[in-house]
Each structure stands twice: as structure tokens, then as C-alpha cells.
Amino acid sequence: VNAAVFTAIKGFEGFVPSPKPDPIKLPTVGYGHKCVKVNCTEVPYPFPLSEANATLLLQSDIATRVPCINQHIVSGVVLNDYQVSALTSFMFNAGCARFMNSTLFTRLNNGEDPNTVAAQEMPKFNKACVNGTLVVLSGLVARRAQEVSLFQTNSSVLWHSWV
């Protein structure tokens, strides 16, 4: 991934120095770190987080998303660093399982034009469950639009260059 993914995720998530619920009531801290333990005790930094420590936490979180791309996008699919960054941002938000079970994933692996696939498939992931109801969130609509734009950024730096 390149630096664009950090800028994008920081912009989407905002800086939260102490644990607080996100729009769907999941406790988050830093730049979108979803806590897995009560009071986010898995976070190795003291609260309130400094922006520097929040960035370190984000780097760690991103490092856990990239393997999903490496392990599940088939060889022969050529993506540039911006496309991988956009997919990483997408998975940071939606998760690897949702990506792997999506038509976005299937169409990329089927060899369709990646830019077309991203433009058609990423915007579909604009909903979240709020109070038991699946609703379109304006923040997700904006996020997906920016992820598509990032995905469609030209670059000669290739990620999957097995062809």
C-alpha cells in the first residue's frame, strides 16, 4: 500500500483519542480501530491516545488487512498501489470476509477491468445496521466514492505483477 491509504482512512475515520462508539455503536479509538475487548484493553498505548500512537495503531491495523488481498486475489490480476490502497481502505471498513463474499472480489478474480468493477461494486457497500435496521449512511456513500476515486488513480507501481 502507499501513503494514500493512511490519508484516506484518517480522513474517513477521524481521530478519536479515547474509546467511544462509532455510528453503529461499536467502540472505536484512534483512526477507526475497532476494539475487541472491553474498554479497548488490547490497545498497547495509554489513553488518551496521541496522534502518533494512533498512527502506529493504524499501521498495525492496516498490516492485518493487506494479507487478505495477497491471499485471495488470484495471480494474473494486476493491481497498482492505489488500487491496493483503495481495497485496503474498503476492507478496513467492511472486513475481509465481506470482501471475499462480494461480487467485487469475484469480478476482480474473473479478470474484469478493475476500474469498471470498482466503480460498479464498491458503492453498493453503503449501508450499515443501525438499531436493527439496514440503512444507507451518507458517510459510507462518501467513503465509497472516495475509495473508487483512489482506486482509479493511475500508477506504474504494480502490486500483483505476475503476468
Task: Give an account of the 3D structure.
The structure is a single chain. The chain has 163 residues and is α+β, with helices and mostly antiparallel strands. The protein has one domain: Lysozyme (Orthogonal Bundle). Helices cover 50% and strands 12% of the residues. The chain contains 7 helices and 5 strands; from the N terminus they run H-E-E-E-H-H-H-H-H-E-E-H. The strands form 2 sheets. It has a 3-stranded antiparallel sheet. A two-stranded antiparallel ribbon has the order 4-5. Helix 1 packs parallel to helix 3 and helix 2 crosses helix 3 (81-94). The longest helix is centred in the middle third of the chain and has 22 residues, at 51-72. It is globular and about 45 Å long. It starts with a helix and ends in a 12-residue tail after the last helix. The mean pLDDT is 92.
Trace the largest sheet across and list its strands.
Answer: 1-2-3
Report the span from N to C terminus: 20 Å
Mean pLDDT across residues: 92
Count structural domains: 1
The second-level CATH architecture is Orthogonal Bundle
Main beta sheet: strand number and arrangement? 3 strands, antiparallel
CATH class: Mainly Alpha
What is the tally of helical segments? 7
Strand-residue proportion: 5-15%
Oligomer kind = single chain
Question: What fold name goes in the CATH topology slot?
Answer: Lysozyme
Spans where pLDDT lies below 50 across 5 or more residues: none
As a percent range, the share of helical residues equals 40-55%
SSE pattern, N- to C-terminal: HEEEHHHHHEEH
Tell me the total number of β-strands: 5
Structural class: alpha+beta
Radius of gyration: 16 Å
Overall form: globular
GO biological process, one term: defense response to bacterium
Keywords: Antimicrobial, Bacteriolytic enzyme, Host cytoplasm, Hydrolase
GO molecular function: lysozyme activity
Protein name: Glycoside hydrolase family 24 protein
